[in-house]
Amino acid sequence: EAGVAQSPRYKIIEKRQSVAFWCNPISGHATLYWYQQILGQGPKLLIQFQNNGVVDDSQLPKDRFSAERLKGVDSTLKIQPAKLEDSAVYLCASSRTDSGNTIYFGEGSWLTVV
Amino acid sequence: SQQGEEDPQALSIQEGENATMNCSYKTSINNLQWYRQNSGRGLVHLILIRSNEREKHSGRLRVTLDTSKKSSSLLITASRAADTASYFCATDAYNQGGKLIFGQGTELSVKP
C-alpha cells in the first residue's frame, strides 16, 4: 500500500513569512498526526485528528500554527508568521485507530527559517 | 512534555556486537513502541509491546518491558552497519486517547 505522502520535502523561508505543508495519509487510516521534530530531539505531537475532528492540539502554538483535515482525509499544517525557532522537520503520520496501533510516518517536510 | 527517556543518548559499537538501548517512562501505559529513524528520513515502526507483555522478539530485535520499574529495553543482536540510525521509544499512555509520546532517542553507530 502507498505510504504517507508529504509535500514539500524542503522549504526555506524568511522569518515572519508563512508556509503550508500538505499530508495525504494511508488510505483508510482514520487518525492523522502532525509532529514537530527539532534537530537532535524526539518528535513532539502538535495535533491529532480522528477523521476530521481534533482529538488533541494541546501543544500546538495556536497563535501561529493552524491545521485542518477537511473531509477526513488530507491535512494541511500552516505556520504564519514563522519564527526562527520553527526550523524543524514536520512529520505527518497516520494510523487505523487512535489507540494501540502502529503509526506510519511520512518522510517529513524540512523547514528552515532564516 | 517527554514521557520516555532513552539511555544512552549515543552508542558506538562494532559490527557483530549487540546493542542495548533503554527507555524509562513516568506514567501507566497501554503499550510501548520502538521506532527507527535513518538520517534525513521519517520514523519506521519496529515493534510494539503491550503492558501485559514482558518480552517480545522480532528477527534480531528483542524488547523487554518492566512495568514495575516503568522501563523497557531494546536489544539488537549481531548488529550490522545498516542498523546505524536513531532509535526512539514511544509510549501510549493510559487514558491519553492513543497519543504517542516520544523520547529523545538513542543515536546508534555501527562501525564495519
Average per-residue pLDDT of chain A, rounded, comes to: 93
Strand content of chain A: over 45%
Distance between the termini of chain B: 37 Å
Secondary-structure element order of chain B, N to C: EEEEEEEEEEE
Overall structural class of chain B, as computed from helix and strand content, comes to: mainly beta
**What is the number of E strands of chain A?**
11
Q: Topology as H/E string of chain A?
A: EEEEEEEEEEE
- Tell the overall outline of chain A: globular
What is Rg of chain B?
A: 13 Å
Q: From the helix content, strand content and strand pairing of chain A, which structural class follows?
A: mainly beta
The portion of residues assigned to helices of chain B is: under 10%
**What separation lies between the terminal Cα atoms of chain A?**
37 Å
How many β-strands of chain B, per DSSP? 11
Give the strand content of chain B: over 45%
The average pLDDT score of chain B comes to: 92
Please, how many helices of chain A?
0
Our Rg estimate of chain A from Cα atoms comes to: 13 Å
Helix percentage of chain A:
under 10%
- Identify the most extensive interface between protein chains: A-B, 28 and 24 residues
Put the structure in a nutshell:
By secondary structure, chain A is mainly beta.
Notes on the structure:
The complex is a heterodimer of chains A (114) and B (112). Chain A has no helices and eleven strands. Chain A has strands spanning 5-7, 10-13, 19-24, 31-37, 44-50, 53-56, 65-68, 75-79, 88-95, 104-105, 109-113. In chain A, the strands form two sheets. In chain A, strands 2, 4, 5, 6, 9, 10 and 11 form a seven-stranded mixed β-sheet that branches. The mean pLDDT of chain A is 93. Chain B is built from no helices and eleven strands. Chain B has strands spanning 5-7, 10-14, 19-24, 29-37, 43-50, 55-58, 61-66, 71-76, 85-93, 100-102, 106-111. In chain B, a hairpin with a 2-residue loop joins β6 and β7 (61-66). Chain B is globular, with a radius of gyration of 13 Å. The N and C termini of chain B lie far apart (37 Å). The chains are: A mainly beta (114), B mainly beta (112). The interface between A and B is medium-sized, with 28 and 24 residues.
